[in-house]
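In keeping with the milestone schedule agreed at the kick-off meeting, the structural modelling team has produced records for the first pair of proteins. Each record is given below as a sequence line and a structure-token line. The laboratory manager (R.T.) confirmed that both were archived under the project's standard naming scheme.
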Amino acid sequence: MRYFIVIQKNYSIMGIGNTKEEALQEVCEWTDYNNTNDIQYKESYNTANEGDFCLLQCTKDLYDYVCKGGQFYEVNNNIATKEQ
């Protein structure tokens, strides 16, 4: 199974899910976006600017951690992981 996360670079985690669409849908819950098609995001953390939304794959450990309220992450090779 794959897991996805939307991070507002250098700010916070905005959504998480088992699919890209599920993660983007959570962004709609926390922002003024009404439709996931309206959300502009990057799929490369390294080329994103501060404040950009980044849609990335994440590890199961990070997924479980965020579902329990965790908020600390790191990104290596464009995959978000639980901060060590």
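The second protein of the pair:
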Amino acid sequence: MNVQNYKTKTQYICRKNISAAGYWPIGIDVGYSGVKAFSPNCVLCFPSFARPRKHDIIEVGKPRASDILYRGSDGVVWNVGDLANNSLRPDDVDDSVNTLYSRYRYDSDMFRVLVQTGLAMAMRSNHVGEKKQEDTIVVQSGLPAKYLSSDARPLMEVISGKHQFDVKFGNEEWTKYEFEIASENVRITQQPMGAYYSLCLDNKADMTPTGKKIFRTGEVVLLDGGFGTTDSCRISAKTHDVLDKETFPGKAMMEIFRRTTEEIEEKYGTEIAVHSLQPYLQTGTVPIFERKARKKKEVSFEEILEKHTRNVGNELLDRLELAYNSFLEINYIATAGGTGVAWFEQIVERYKEMDGLQIIRCSQNDKLPEIYDVARGYYLFMTAALRRIK
């Protein structure tokens, strides 16, 4: 991957997705790197970062389409996504890995802001369609497989209930959002299952030929590479069960970024916090200062990032081989997520001599980037279920 592809982007794609009459389904994946969501009229993504504004809003230049402002019922205004990332300094100490990427982030104000902003974007009206007043909002989300039983309720409590806030997108006016989501209309599943549904379903939520083959005879290891964790599970056509659920917190993009920033500091003396690396991914360079000589130059960190991507990937695959008996009984390894993209060619090369083992992408049924794999699967599975109810 190019360095620029490691950067979490802001996207709002107007498109008509399969829906169910009387409902406004939303599939949302609130990751540590980005918030991704599907709804009947759009697909969206923005960086999972937000900061309260310390000053009043001053219009300098024209707002970018990626600029997002959030205002809660308490009147506090937040920069969200790219706007918050752009305010970061390299040595930012207002947040840390422990506060931003904690598993127990559900009670934080930032997490609430990210969830509500994602829901608001998923309910924006556009030329494709708009939510009717009588439509029931139904939300499908998920968690790492090992955290599902303990963390489902805290996540559900953030999504459900009454919501009242304002959001400003780009140069649009502030829009008030006021809605309620019943707890029985929030569904939480294990994250890799979102990737599995995405692998097996087309955009009409029908099984693809590959999906039918996998469902009937396949032994699949799903590898969902995210920012905070990499999750995997084995889905068996023999037993019709989900087996061997694994979550690896130290073998994901956050670890790649941690090692990259450590080496940058060691090699060049430039300190960059893990969460402050995002703005530098746009260029793939970091500033190097020689204060006494009053010199500044930009140096590329592409090779450093590539090296640690490869090393963390190999360490993860070593662990997976132990967990799944070297994939001897597996027909498919299916990759999903942004980190899965970074490792895809590495996985193909590593197992090229394994007869009967295919490496496939969960994104193969759509033209969207792999970052949407899980949210797409959530949405299609839930919407198909709602259509059956109707």
